[in-house]
Design a protein that fits this description.
25% of the residues lie in helices and 42% in strands. The relative contact order is 0.15. With 302 residues, it is of the alpha+beta class. It has one domain. The N and C termini lie far apart (61 Å). The protein has 5 helices and 14 strands. Strand 12 and strand 13 form a beta hairpin.
Protein backbone atom coordinates (compact mmCIF):
# COMPACT_ATOMS: atom_id res chain seq x y z
CA UNK A 1 0.00 0.00 0.00
CA UNK A 2 2.83 2.43 0.88
CA UNK A 3 4.40 1.74 -2.50
CA UNK A 4 1.20 2.86 -4.20
CA UNK A 5 0.72 6.00 -2.10
CA UNK A 6 4.15 7.43 -2.86
CA UNK A 7 3.88 7.25 -6.68
CA UNK A 8 0.38 8.76 -6.44
CA UNK A 9 1.77 11.58 -4.34
CA UNK A 10 4.49 12.23 -6.92
CA UNK A 11 1.88 12.19 -9.68
CA UNK A 12 -0.22 14.84 -7.89
CA UNK A 13 2.85 17.01 -7.22
CA UNK A 14 3.95 16.78 -10.85
CA UNK A 15 0.45 17.65 -12.05
CA UNK A 16 0.28 20.73 -9.81
CA UNK A 17 3.76 21.84 -10.91
CA UNK A 18 2.87 21.46 -14.58
CA UNK A 19 -0.32 23.52 -14.08
CA UNK A 20 1.65 26.25 -12.30
CA UNK A 21 4.28 26.34 -15.04
CA UNK A 22 1.57 26.47 -17.71
CA UNK A 23 -0.12 29.37 -15.93
CA UNK A 24 3.18 31.28 -15.81
CA UNK A 25 3.56 30.75 -19.56
CA UNK A 26 0.02 32.09 -20.03
CA UNK A 27 0.72 35.16 -17.93
CA UNK A 28 3.91 35.89 -19.86
CA UNK A 29 2.12 35.57 -23.20
CA UNK A 30 -0.58 38.02 -22.11
CA UNK A 31 1.92 40.55 -20.77
CA UNK A 32 4.06 40.18 -23.90
CA UNK A 33 1.33 42.21 -25.65
CA UNK A 34 2.39 45.27 -23.62
CA UNK A 35 4.71 47.91 -25.02
CA UNK A 36 5.02 50.27 -27.99
CA UNK A 37 3.94 49.02 -31.41
CA UNK A 38 3.65 50.06 -34.99
CA UNK A 39 0.30 48.56 -35.95
CA UNK A 40 -1.01 47.58 -39.35
CA UNK A 41 -4.84 47.31 -39.40
CA UNK A 42 -6.16 45.22 -42.31
CA UNK A 43 -9.78 44.23 -43.04
CA UNK A 44 -11.49 42.84 -46.13
CA UNK A 45 -14.80 41.14 -46.87
CA UNK A 46 -14.03 37.67 -48.19
CA UNK A 47 -17.47 36.23 -49.04
CA UNK A 48 -20.93 37.72 -49.40
CA UNK A 49 -24.26 35.90 -49.18
CA UNK A 50 -26.79 38.68 -49.81
CA UNK A 51 -29.68 38.11 -52.21
CA UNK A 52 -29.66 41.81 -52.98
CA UNK A 53 -28.01 42.36 -56.36
CA UNK A 54 -27.16 45.92 -55.28
CA UNK A 55 -25.26 44.74 -52.20
CA UNK A 56 -22.12 46.78 -51.59
CA UNK A 57 -19.35 45.15 -49.52
CA UNK A 58 -17.27 47.22 -47.14
CA UNK A 59 -14.17 48.67 -48.74
CA UNK A 60 -10.85 47.00 -48.06
CA UNK A 61 -9.22 48.79 -45.12
CA UNK A 62 -5.47 49.27 -44.67
CA UNK A 63 -4.49 51.63 -41.86
CA UNK A 64 -1.34 52.12 -39.84
CA UNK A 65 -0.84 53.56 -36.38
CA UNK A 66 1.35 53.79 -33.34
CA UNK A 67 -0.08 52.20 -30.21
CA UNK A 68 1.00 51.91 -26.59
CA UNK A 69 -0.34 48.92 -24.63
CA UNK A 70 -0.24 49.78 -20.93
CA UNK A 71 -0.16 47.17 -18.16
CA UNK A 72 -2.83 48.49 -15.76
CA UNK A 73 -3.29 45.55 -13.38
CA UNK A 74 -1.11 42.50 -12.82
CA UNK A 75 -2.55 40.02 -10.33
CA UNK A 76 -2.37 36.25 -10.04
CA UNK A 77 -5.73 35.72 -11.72
CA UNK A 78 -6.30 39.04 -13.48
CA UNK A 79 -4.28 41.05 -15.99
CA UNK A 80 -5.56 44.33 -17.47
CA UNK A 81 -4.15 45.92 -20.65
CA UNK A 82 -5.15 49.39 -21.88
CA UNK A 83 -4.54 50.32 -25.52
CA UNK A 84 -3.68 53.96 -26.29
CA UNK A 85 -3.58 55.10 -29.92
CA UNK A 86 -1.12 57.84 -30.90
CA UNK A 87 -2.03 60.00 -33.91
CA UNK A 88 -0.44 63.00 -35.58
CA UNK A 89 3.15 63.90 -36.40
CA UNK A 90 6.02 63.35 -33.97
CA UNK A 91 5.95 67.06 -33.16
CA UNK A 92 2.17 67.20 -32.59
CA UNK A 93 1.14 63.82 -31.22
CA UNK A 94 -2.35 63.29 -29.83
CA UNK A 95 -3.33 60.34 -27.62
CA UNK A 96 -6.69 58.59 -27.99
CA UNK A 97 -7.91 56.13 -25.40
CA UNK A 98 -8.52 52.96 -27.41
CA UNK A 99 -9.87 49.51 -26.48
CA UNK A 100 -9.11 47.59 -23.28
CA UNK A 101 -8.63 43.89 -22.67
CA UNK A 102 -8.97 42.16 -19.29
CA UNK A 103 -7.73 38.59 -18.82
CA UNK A 104 -9.27 36.53 -15.98
CA UNK A 105 -8.07 33.06 -15.01
CA UNK A 106 -10.70 30.32 -14.69
CA UNK A 107 -13.47 32.92 -14.71
CA UNK A 108 -17.03 31.54 -14.68
CA UNK A 109 -19.06 34.77 -15.17
CA UNK A 110 -19.63 35.94 -18.73
CA UNK A 111 -21.66 38.62 -20.48
CA UNK A 112 -22.63 37.45 -23.98
CA UNK A 113 -23.72 40.03 -26.54
CA UNK A 114 -27.17 39.40 -27.95
CA UNK A 115 -28.20 42.35 -30.15
CA UNK A 116 -29.49 45.94 -29.88
CA UNK A 117 -26.98 46.87 -27.17
CA UNK A 118 -28.06 43.95 -24.94
CA UNK A 119 -25.79 41.54 -23.08
CA UNK A 120 -26.97 38.33 -21.41
CA UNK A 121 -25.31 37.23 -18.18
CA UNK A 122 -24.56 33.55 -17.68
CA UNK A 123 -22.30 31.40 -15.54
CA UNK A 124 -20.16 28.49 -16.64
CA UNK A 125 -19.32 25.43 -14.56
CA UNK A 126 -15.84 25.49 -13.02
CA UNK A 127 -14.85 22.38 -14.94
CA UNK A 128 -15.66 24.18 -18.22
CA UNK A 129 -13.04 26.86 -17.62
CA UNK A 130 -10.32 24.83 -15.89
CA UNK A 131 -6.96 26.13 -17.04
CA UNK A 132 -8.61 28.75 -19.28
CA UNK A 133 -8.44 32.53 -19.47
CA UNK A 134 -11.42 34.77 -20.23
CA UNK A 135 -10.64 37.73 -22.44
CA UNK A 136 -13.05 40.60 -21.77
CA UNK A 137 -12.88 43.37 -24.38
CA UNK A 138 -14.20 46.85 -23.62
CA UNK A 139 -14.97 49.90 -25.73
CA UNK A 140 -13.22 53.27 -25.45
CA UNK A 141 -15.62 54.31 -22.66
CA UNK A 142 -15.02 50.99 -20.84
CA UNK A 143 -18.50 49.69 -21.65
CA UNK A 144 -18.57 46.02 -22.69
CA UNK A 145 -17.97 44.70 -26.21
CA UNK A 146 -17.37 40.95 -26.20
CA UNK A 147 -15.81 38.21 -24.07
CA UNK A 148 -15.03 34.52 -24.17
CA UNK A 149 -13.00 31.80 -22.47
CA UNK A 150 -10.31 29.54 -23.94
CA UNK A 151 -6.92 28.04 -23.12
CA UNK A 152 -3.61 29.50 -24.19
CA UNK A 153 -1.64 27.07 -26.34
CA UNK A 154 2.16 26.97 -26.18
CA UNK A 155 3.78 24.80 -28.79
CA UNK A 156 6.78 24.92 -31.17
CA UNK A 157 7.98 28.09 -29.48
CA UNK A 158 4.71 29.92 -30.16
CA UNK A 159 1.85 31.08 -27.92
CA UNK A 160 -1.73 31.59 -29.10
CA UNK A 161 -5.29 31.95 -27.81
CA UNK A 162 -8.50 31.61 -29.85
CA UNK A 163 -12.19 32.14 -29.14
CA UNK A 164 -15.45 32.93 -30.95
CA UNK A 165 -17.87 35.46 -29.42
CA UNK A 166 -20.79 37.70 -30.40
CA UNK A 167 -20.06 41.42 -30.56
CA UNK A 168 -21.62 44.74 -31.61
CA UNK A 169 -20.50 46.21 -34.92
CA UNK A 170 -17.00 47.74 -34.79
CA UNK A 171 -16.80 51.52 -35.05
CA UNK A 172 -15.43 51.32 -38.61
CA UNK A 173 -18.71 49.59 -39.58
CA UNK A 174 -21.60 50.95 -37.49
CA UNK A 175 -21.05 54.51 -38.73
CA UNK A 176 -21.45 53.24 -42.32
CA UNK A 177 -23.54 50.06 -42.24
CA UNK A 178 -27.05 49.28 -40.99
CA UNK A 179 -27.77 46.12 -42.99
CA UNK A 180 -26.56 43.79 -40.20
CA UNK A 181 -26.53 44.09 -36.43
CA UNK A 182 -24.21 41.44 -34.92
CA UNK A 183 -20.60 40.47 -35.55
CA UNK A 184 -19.69 36.88 -34.67
CA UNK A 185 -15.96 37.25 -34.09
CA UNK A 186 -13.35 34.52 -34.08
CA UNK A 187 -10.31 36.17 -32.50
CA UNK A 188 -6.87 34.64 -32.38
CA UNK A 189 -3.97 36.27 -30.53
CA UNK A 190 -0.57 35.03 -31.63
CA UNK A 191 2.61 36.08 -29.84
CA UNK A 192 5.56 36.37 -32.24
CA UNK A 193 9.24 37.28 -31.94
CA UNK A 194 8.51 40.66 -33.53
CA UNK A 195 5.44 41.41 -31.38
CA UNK A 196 1.99 39.89 -31.83
CA UNK A 197 -0.83 39.38 -34.30
CA UNK A 198 -4.58 39.84 -33.85
CA UNK A 199 -6.04 37.45 -36.42
CA UNK A 200 -9.81 37.67 -36.99
CA UNK A 201 -12.46 35.78 -38.94
CA UNK A 202 -15.75 37.66 -38.59
CA UNK A 203 -19.30 36.79 -39.62
CA UNK A 204 -21.62 39.73 -40.37
CA UNK A 205 -25.00 38.54 -39.10
CA UNK A 206 -28.58 39.77 -39.30
CA UNK A 207 -30.27 38.79 -36.04
CA UNK A 208 -33.96 39.16 -35.22
CA UNK A 209 -35.67 37.98 -32.07
CA UNK A 210 -37.17 34.53 -32.42
CA UNK A 211 -35.65 33.97 -35.86
CA UNK A 212 -32.63 32.11 -37.16
CA UNK A 213 -29.53 34.22 -37.77
CA UNK A 214 -28.89 35.22 -41.39
CA UNK A 215 -25.26 35.31 -42.52
CA UNK A 216 -24.81 38.40 -44.70
CA UNK A 217 -21.05 38.33 -45.30
CA UNK A 218 -17.73 37.22 -43.88
CA UNK A 219 -14.65 39.31 -43.19
CA UNK A 220 -10.96 38.74 -42.61
CA UNK A 221 -9.07 40.93 -40.17
CA UNK A 222 -5.30 40.79 -39.72
CA UNK A 223 -3.76 43.35 -37.37
CA UNK A 224 0.02 43.15 -36.99
CA UNK A 225 1.67 44.65 -33.88
CA UNK A 226 5.40 45.18 -34.49
CA UNK A 227 7.41 46.08 -31.38
CA UNK A 228 9.39 49.33 -31.49
CA UNK A 229 11.37 51.32 -28.94
CA UNK A 230 9.18 52.31 -25.97
CA UNK A 231 10.42 55.91 -26.19
CA UNK A 232 8.39 56.35 -29.37
CA UNK A 233 5.25 56.03 -27.22
CA UNK A 234 6.37 58.46 -24.52
CA UNK A 235 3.37 60.75 -25.12
CA UNK A 236 0.95 57.88 -24.41
CA UNK A 237 2.85 56.89 -21.27
CA UNK A 238 2.65 60.45 -20.00
CA UNK A 239 -1.04 60.70 -20.95
CA UNK A 240 -1.84 57.59 -18.93
CA UNK A 241 0.00 58.87 -15.87
CA UNK A 242 -2.10 62.03 -16.02
CA UNK A 243 -5.47 60.34 -16.64
CA UNK A 244 -5.23 56.87 -15.07
CA UNK A 245 -7.00 57.86 -11.84
CA UNK A 246 -9.99 59.17 -13.79
CA UNK A 247 -10.36 55.95 -15.75
CA UNK A 248 -9.92 53.86 -12.62
CA UNK A 249 -13.13 55.48 -11.33
CA UNK A 250 -14.87 54.55 -14.58
CA UNK A 251 -13.75 50.90 -14.32
CA UNK A 252 -14.89 50.73 -10.69
CA UNK A 253 -18.37 51.92 -11.63
CA UNK A 254 -18.65 49.40 -14.44
CA UNK A 255 -17.43 46.66 -12.09
CA UNK A 256 -20.28 47.52 -9.72
CA UNK A 257 -22.75 47.07 -12.57
CA UNK A 258 -21.21 43.78 -13.72
CA UNK A 259 -21.15 42.49 -10.13
CA UNK A 260 -24.95 42.53 -10.11
CA UNK A 261 -24.78 39.53 -12.47
CA UNK A 262 -27.89 40.57 -14.35
CA UNK A 263 -28.69 40.93 -18.04
CA UNK A 264 -27.59 44.34 -19.26
CA UNK A 265 -29.03 46.77 -21.80
CA UNK A 266 -27.45 50.12 -22.59
CA UNK A 267 -28.80 53.27 -24.19
CA UNK A 268 -26.99 54.35 -27.35
CA UNK A 269 -27.18 57.99 -26.30
CA UNK A 270 -28.30 60.22 -23.43
CA UNK A 271 -29.05 63.91 -24.00
CA UNK A 272 -28.12 63.38 -27.63
CA UNK A 273 -24.62 62.07 -26.95
CA UNK A 274 -23.07 58.58 -26.68
CA UNK A 275 -21.28 57.69 -23.46
CA UNK A 276 -17.79 58.25 -24.82
CA UNK A 277 -18.72 61.81 -25.79
CA UNK A 278 -19.74 62.54 -22.19
CA UNK A 279 -16.57 61.04 -20.71
CA UNK A 280 -14.22 62.54 -23.30
CA UNK A 281 -15.68 66.04 -22.93
CA UNK A 282 -12.96 68.40 -21.68
CA UNK A 283 -15.44 69.87 -19.18
CA UNK A 284 -16.37 66.48 -17.67
CA UNK A 285 -15.57 66.28 -13.94
CA UNK A 286 -14.26 62.86 -12.95
CA UNK A 287 -15.71 62.79 -9.45
CA UNK A 288 -17.02 59.43 -8.20
CA UNK A 289 -20.52 60.89 -8.03
CA UNK A 290 -20.44 62.31 -11.57
CA UNK A 291 -18.98 59.11 -13.04
CA UNK A 292 -21.64 56.99 -11.31
CA UNK A 293 -24.46 59.31 -12.37
CA UNK A 294 -23.30 59.44 -16.00
CA UNK A 295 -22.74 55.70 -16.50
CA UNK A 296 -25.95 54.78 -14.65
CA UNK A 297 -27.92 57.06 -16.99
CA UNK A 298 -26.98 54.71 -19.83
CA UNK A 299 -28.13 51.54 -18.07
CA UNK A 300 -31.70 50.68 -19.06
CA UNK A 301 -33.72 50.01 -15.92
CA UNK A 302 -35.99 46.98 -16.20
Amino acid sequence: MKRLIFPLFLLVVCSITQAQNKKKQDQKAIKDMCGCYEVSFNFAETFEYSNNENYQPSKVKHDKGLEWVQLVEDHKNKIVLQHLLIVGSQARQRVIKHWRQDWLYENTDLYTYNMNNEWTFHSLAKKQVKGQWTQKVFQVDDSPRYEGSAAWIHTDGKSSWENTANAPLPRREYTKRDDYNVTVRTNKHIITQEGWVHDQDNDKVIRKKGQKDILLAQEKGYNIYTKVDNNRCKSAQNWWKEHQDNWAKVRIQWDKIFAQKKDLQLETSVNGKPLFSHLFDKEFKFTEEKVEETIDSFVVKK
